[in-house]
């Protein structure tokens, strides 16, 4: 048992040393800040969802409007070195409102089987950690070519969604959900490497970089929730 623990510890130390040798100190510091902000934004999302589900605070349509306004504000209100805490507050507010919009879906799933939420959360967390590490340990810039292709896929999926509003095809809906999970997984890899490259080029906008990853994680989590719920409902029938 002790030998196993020592082996795991040695492998962990080797892994951390590998990351340390691969990335400059300022890049490691930037990634640390990005992941800390990402984690706290996820906490704000959790709080927003819980308050909505418990009927303590339900912003309704206002939450959806606020998410749009806040994300546009973060896009146009660029980092100037002096507005960090203002933009950070906007990001946390965006996370909170995203939780409010997610609350009704979570409440519906809880009425069916609360274990679905835990399964989707675990799947999202494990996937994010695994793909982030894969991107950080891969050859630098290896997956940056994915950016253009992923945007094209997203645009195609958006177009199909518009058509499906008319035709209401269950097959198209489920295909988009499954493809969307893989697209978000690819975005995690792409965004992770892109953040590193931007940092090296002087762009150290922690808030924007955390927002990019937050989009990936939230989109994957939402899709996994729907997929798992649909599978359970099919099984019950």
Automatic annotation (TrEMBL):
PANTHER family: BAX INHIBITOR 1, BAX INHIBITOR-RELATED. The lineage of its organism: Eukaryota, Metazoa, Ecdysozoa, Arthropoda, Hexapoda. GO terms for molecular function: enzyme binding. One of its GO terms (cellular component) is mitochondrial membrane. Its main location: membrane. It is a multi-pass membrane protein. Belongs to the BI1 family. The chain crosses the membrane at residues 32-53, 59-77, 89-109, 115-136, 143-164, 170-190. Keywords: Apoptosis, Membrane, Transmembrane, Transmembrane helix. Coiled coil: none annotated. The gene is LOC117141158. InterPro entries: Bax_inhbtr1_CS, Bax_inhibitor_1-related. The keyword Acetylation does not apply. This is Bax inhibitor 1 isoform X2. It is found in: Membrane. GO terms for biological process: apoptotic process; cellular response to unfolded protein; negative regulation of apoptotic signaling pathway; negative regulation of RNA splicing. Pfam families: Bax1-I.
């Amino acid at each position: 048992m002790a030998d196993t623990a020592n082996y795991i510890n040695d492998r962990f130390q080797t892994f951390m040393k590998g990351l340390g040798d691969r990335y400059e100190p300022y890049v490691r510091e930037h990634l640390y800040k990005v992941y800390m902000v990402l984690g706290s934004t996820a906490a704000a999302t959790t709080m927003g969802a819980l308050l909505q589900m418990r009927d303590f605070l339900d912003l309704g349509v206002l939450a959806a409007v606020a998410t749009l306004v806040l994300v546009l504000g973060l896009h146009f209100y660029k980092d100037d070195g002096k507005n960090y805490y203002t933009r950070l507050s906007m990001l946390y507010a965006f996370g909170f409102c995203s939780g409010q919009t997610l609350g009704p879906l979570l409440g519906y799933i809880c009425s069916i089987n609360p274990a679905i939420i835990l399964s989707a959360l675990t799947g999202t967390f494990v996937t994010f950690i695994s793909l982030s590490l894969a991107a950080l340990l891969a050859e630098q810039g290896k997956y940056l070519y994915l950016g253009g292709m992923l945007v094209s896929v997203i645009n195609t999926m958006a177009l199909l969604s518009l058509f499906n509003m008319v035709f209401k095809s269950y097959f198209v809906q489920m295909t988009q959900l499954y493809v969307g999970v893989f697209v978000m997984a690819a975005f995690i890899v792409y965004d992770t490497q892109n953040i590193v490259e931007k940092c090296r080029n002087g762009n150290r906008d922690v808030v924007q970089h955390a927002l990019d990853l937050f989009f990936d994680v939230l989109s994957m989590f939402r899709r996994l929730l729907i997929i798992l719920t649909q599978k359970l409902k099919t099984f019950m029938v």
